[in-house]
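Input record (one chain):
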Amino acid sequence: MSFSSPKVSRPSNSPPTLTDPARFPEPASAPVRSRRAWILLLLTLILPGAAQVVAGNKRLGRLALRCTFTVWALVIAAVLLALLQRETLLNLFTSPVPSLLIIVVLVAVAVGWAYMFLNTLSIIRPGLLAPGMRGMISIAVVVLMVLTSGSLGYGAFLINSGRNAITSIFAAGPNMKPVDGRYNFLLMGGDAGEDRSGRRPDSIMVVSVDAKTGQAATISIPRNFQNARFEPGSPLWDVYPDGYNCGDQCIINFLYTDVTNNHPTLYPGSADPGASAMMDAAGGILGLSIQGYVLVDMAGFSDLIDALGGVTVNVGGWVPISGDDINGTGDHLPPTGWIAPGVQKLDGYHALWFARSRQWVLEYNRSQRQQCIQAAMLAQMDPATIFTKFSALADAGSKVVESDLPAGQLGSFVSLALKSKGHPLARLTIGPPDFDKNFPTYPDFGVLHQRVKQLLNPPASTPKAPTSKAPAPAEPAAPAAPAPEVPAEPAPEAPAAQAPTPAAPSSGPEITAEYLQQLAINGDDLTLGSLLANNGTCSPG
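The corresponding structure, as predicted from the sequence alone:
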């Protein structure tokens, strides 16, 4: 079918007849009209405005084509940015003003594209089509409008959801700079229950990320850590010059409430003095400069996991869902349920209990499980999951997350998070299995700082040692003082596959939820402590 200029046939005994079917379809046959309709729709799908130039309002078509070419240029530029400068592109989507402009452009393009489809439908003139073809063309127009304008509108909605969440969660301020080539963030899980005076962070973890490679490490600080010290430049130096060292009343998770209630003026520029104090404490403990914090309300943590669609974890050992605390004494009623060993996809409720349960086990089991949850969430944060669940994640995050990270730098942090997925997550716990169980009460900060340095800067010469003289270095390395600590890093993961074996010897009773529940009812804490001792040996599923 030719879309050339109108041609005029002039028989000697008849008036002029227009024969161009693109602009004048009336004389054309039914098959030609149908082909014309589909071609005009295809032109509007690929190059909005082309159908109008060919068969409709040429002025409108030329205007639409200019807009189309501009949009294609922007799309090509975005693709090039994604390949060459990903952080710049992410910053455009996460910064308040650029993201608002992107939303406006998407909405304008969606409305304009929808109008062009409707205008194309009027050019097609369905009344000239065969009855069956009219319905097909009408359905095709609706489907194409949903796929094009609908997708653009949904994209604008997602960006707006993220923009609102970013405004709600993150701070406005100057960008952070890496210290010694790393970003160090304090991640806390805060719990403000009815039986508590203020919020207390029961989950305390420092996440350190290499600013270039994205290689990340997590360091868990147990809630019962004592004698936390502060650097001389900290506002808390004058209050606690010898450290936070008043015994059981000065375990680290009390510091948040202490500063919030008694010393808020020490941090006049901070929106959350308690969080700022915890950053100072974590920095002094680990010998790191902590640049920002993220505080997750544990009461809403389950909503965040549900928004993610659950989290898959290889559960190392049985984990109890504790019964009610009896009058705040620390004695609990028998568990209301159990999380069984093996690879499981946990919903929000069970993921929360997996991360916080510490009945019959040491505090450090919980720290290891929290590291597992964090690693599992990071592993599941793939682009497809984020895109399909973005609105729910943004909504849940805005309700349960607080942070002082600068909103304008989120693109850089997202890019680092994507890079970190290509590296194994290094882990350290200030307590078993990496340190003695008494270490958090009587910490040797020199040893601790050395371990942190080794974790973040593993020696590059390690792989070369076996090649030159394998037997020689192997002999002195075994009895050396640091030797007991070397296997500590793989310890949380290596035993995971074997975790159920010691808990259920063939000669003893089968370990089931019913059996464990009866032990709890009987008050057999000794047996339960033995059977549940491996419930920190977990790993991402």
